[in-house]
UniProtKB/TrEMBL annotation:
Positions of transmembrane segments: none
Keyword Signal: yes
Organism in which the protein naturally occurs: Acidisphaera rubrifaciens HS-AP3
Name of protein: LTXXQ motif family protein
Position of the signal peptide: 1-29
GO cellular component terms listed in the entry, alphabetical order: periplasmic space
């Protein structure tokens, strides 16, 4: 795969991480139900998918490939949401070892999800004409840069520009 083809998938990974992997704030009430949390995440994912669909200018011919990508995104969000909810409920009594295992499980799930998402996106990207690929490159690069700038602040990382 060429670097030009990998760039959109890498940018997409960062964009989706922002949408799907930002854990709930610690101060959020524990009484918040899993259904409510899942509904909020689902709503956010749907908004981002709709925006990305419009920004990429998905054509009727590309809709089946887009549908596969969107379904993969939704499935990934559900899988990560379940892990976040499990972690949130167990965190107050977790040992240091269990905490590390939980984080490892989340990282492994995220990596598997991103491989599936990359496969779905690569098929969509390959079907795009050159002008639309250029649009996708710019859109996803911008999303990735926005995520990078905000992600460091959210997680205490220093700016690496």
């Amino acid at each position: 795969m060429t670097n030009a083809r990998r760039l959109p998938a890498a940018a997409l990974a960062a964009t989706l991480a922002a949408a799907l992997l930002v854990p709930a704030a610690p101060a959020r009430a524990q009484a918040q139900s899993e259904a409510t949390t899942f509904a909020a995440v689902s709503k956010r994912v749907e908004r981002r998918l709709a925006r990305l669909h419009d920004e990429l200018g998905i054509t009727p011919a590309e809709e089946p490939l887009w549908a596969r990508y969107a379904a993969t995104t939704r499935s990934n969000a559900q899988a990560m949401g379940s892990l976040f909810e499990q972690r949130r409920s167990e965190l107050p009594t977790m040992t240091a070892d269990a905490n590390t295992r939980s984080l490892t499980a989340m990282a492994e799930q995220h990596a598997a999800d991103m491989r599936r998402l990359q496969t779905a996106f690569e098929a969509l990207y390959a079907a795009m004409p050159a002008a639309q690929k250029a649009t996708a490159d710019a859109v996803l690069r911008r999303h990735s840069m926005d995520h990078h700038e905000n992600h460091g602040e959210d997680h205490g990382h220093e700016d690496h520009h």
